[in-house]
């Protein structure tokens, strides 16, 4: 034992969940009230190595406006991954040796950090998944297959990402449950009248996105949840686009499940979170079978571990979970209210600048107060792919396509849009580069 | 910015596509979608004595996919069906004359894929076999 331990550098003790794992980020905790929060992007940008790379010769500086697809990572997250692999890695919940105990402690500390970040009362309610998609599939399979009967109603909305649509199509096909859809109003908000009509049919589950990835609409999640709970339904909130950008508190929302992805919230890829109310998780069977999720295994049958281990079969993404913990600690250090305020100022700036570009039509809520830092638009006579390709020639990165929301775009009689989306590190000059690029699009296609 | 793929040939074919529309009746009609971006192309073909006597395409999508389909129709009209089936991705890219990045390859070859699937009746072709 001693010689084995000596062969490794002494692992760092597991950080307390409420302490940052590294302190490379520069956060002004006591910012005077008169300092405009619009400078948050300028202030934290040095923390993001990828945004400070020199562009390749002949290309201008990168304007990264695709955070809704995946966010960039601060040094604190990159360091957490490196430090973990350099000092602490071993499999968790298995070894009785010190290294494994340290890895386990850090993994569980990350779980506690997640719970704290979303206001969950109990870290056991936090299940680590790969991403939002896996979290929703977990509920669809582990809860849906066991509890849904022919004719049972699942309520979704026409605005869902494919990840909150296709899993329910699959489980409905298997169980005979029916899908009902909350409609959308022309301004890209949900038609809550159609929600009430569906709720009158005693649904078993209501699942909806908190923020639309395609249009940026912030849905009234607490209000929808209140109505759904009053109708006796369970509520799943797809928090993929809300958790990184606005304060999300599961108790305040009142929901039963919340799913989100690590890579959109400044964390690594390959790690996500499903939060579920303890009594509901306790009553659910497993999703995937394998190691870690069992209590006792016989040749022909097994019994299940307690939650959350029951839903974490196999060796999990340990480093990524720890990296996610570092990301959430970093974001909490900034404060989600400030992130939301910063992104909202960028949104208003972008809407103002885009209004000056001929042929550009911005989609989504007419009231910016109901919109997150996502701007979806079309350019007259130019396909979004061409818009994005010409923007890329100016090193402006945006998303073009259906944003995994084909039914939503069909509602709007569109095949695709161009989407610019912001993060806490986004700065105004990136929006200026977007506008310059769009003028070039017009010059090429409509000149 | 000198390597723009939006050269005259692409913009000309995009704005004034050749053989654009539908043939009804047609001997072969086939429609394909690019699942990444939702682009659609439909190609109708009339065949006489083993030759593509008439061709028409219709669809919606980016300039690269639509211009490429237009250029493709110029390449194959009046040619034997066997020759159209044997046409390679490289043949088409040479005719396009623009640098096509991996991300845009599916756009540039959507028309070719549609035509080949229609003419052969195959259910799928791997992109690297086009």
From TrEMBL, chain B:
GO terms for biological process: iron-sulfur cluster assembly. It comes from the Bacteria. InterPro entries: NIF_FeS_clus_asmbl_NifU_N. GO terms for molecular function: iron ion binding; iron-sulfur cluster binding. Residues 6-119 form the NIF system FeS cluster assembly NifU N-terminal domain. This is Iron-sulfur cluster assembly scaffold protein for SUF system, SufE2. It comes from uncultured Thermomicrobiales bacterium.
């Amino acid at each position: 034992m001693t010689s084995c331990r000596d062969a490794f550098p002494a692992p760092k003790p597991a950080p307390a969940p409420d302490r940052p794992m590294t302190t490379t980020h520069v956060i002004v905790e006591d910012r005077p009230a008169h300092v405009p929060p619009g400078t948050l992007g300028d202030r934290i940008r040095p923390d993001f190595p990828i945004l400070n790379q020199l562009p390749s010769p002949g290309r201008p500086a990168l304007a990264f406006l695709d955070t809704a697809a995946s966010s960039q990572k601060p040094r604190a997250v990159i360091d957490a991954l490196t430090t973990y692999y350099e000092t602490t890695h071993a499999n968790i919940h298995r070894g009785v040796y010190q290294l494994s105990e340290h890895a386990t402690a850090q993994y569980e500390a990350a779980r506690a950090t997640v719970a704290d970040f979303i206001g969950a009362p109990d870290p056991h309610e936090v299940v680590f998944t790969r991403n939002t998609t896996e979290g929703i599939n977990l509920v669809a399979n582990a809860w849906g297959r066991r509890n849904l009967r022919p004719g049972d109603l699942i309520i979704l909305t026409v605005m869902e990402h494919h990840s909150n649509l296709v899993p329910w199509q699959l489980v409905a096909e298997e169980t005979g449950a029916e899908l009902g859809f909350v409609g959308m109003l022309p301004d890209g908000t949900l038609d809550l009248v159609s929600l009430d009509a569906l709720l009158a049919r005693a649904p078993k589950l209501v699942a909806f996105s908190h923020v639309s990835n395609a249009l940026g609409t912030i849905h009234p999640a607490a209000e929808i949840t209140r109505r759904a709970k009053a109708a006796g339904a369970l509520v799943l909130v797809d928090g993929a686009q809300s958790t990184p950008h606005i304060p999300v508190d599961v108790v305040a929302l009142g929901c039963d499940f919340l799913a989100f992805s690590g890579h959109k919230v400044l964390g690594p890829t390959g790690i996500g979170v499903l939060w579920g109310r303890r009594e509901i998780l306790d009553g659910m069977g497993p999703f995937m079978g394998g190691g870690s999720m069992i209590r006792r295994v016989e040749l022909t049958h097994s019994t299940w571990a307690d939650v959350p281990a029951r839903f974490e079969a196999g060796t999990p993404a340990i480093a990524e979970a720890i990296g996610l913990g570092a990301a959430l600690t970093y974001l909490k250090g900034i404060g989600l209210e400030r992130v939301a305020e910063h992104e909202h100022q960028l949104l208003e700036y972008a809407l103002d600048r885009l209004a000056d570009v001929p042929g550009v039509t911005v989609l989504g809520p007419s009231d910016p107060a109901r919109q997150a830092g996502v701007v979806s638009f079309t350019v007259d006579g130019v396909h979004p792919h061409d818009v994005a390709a010409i923007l890329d020639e100016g090193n402006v990165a945006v998303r073009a396509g259906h944003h995994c929301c084909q039914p939503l775009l069909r509602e709007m009689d569109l095949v695709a849009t161009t989407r610019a989306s912001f993060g806490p590190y986004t700065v105004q000059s990136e929006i200026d580069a977007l506008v310059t690029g769009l003028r070039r699009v017009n010059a090429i296609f409509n000149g | 910015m000198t390597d723009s793929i939006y050269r005259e040939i692409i913009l000309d074919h995009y704005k004034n596509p050749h053989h654009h529309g539908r043939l009804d009746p047609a001997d072969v009609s086939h429609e394909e979608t690019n699942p990444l971006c939702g682009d659609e192309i439909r190609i109708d073909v009339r065949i006489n004595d083993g030759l593509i006597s008439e061709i028409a395409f219709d669809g919606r999508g980016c300039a690269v996919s639509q211009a490429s389909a237009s250029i493709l129709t110029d390449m194959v009209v009046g040619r034997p069906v066997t020759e159209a089936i044997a046409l390679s991705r490289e043949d088409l890219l040479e005719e396009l004359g623009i640098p096509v990045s991996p991300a845009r390859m599916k756009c540039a070859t959507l028309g070719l894929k549609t035509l080949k699937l229609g003419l052969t009746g195959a259910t799928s072709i791997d992109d690297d076999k086009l």
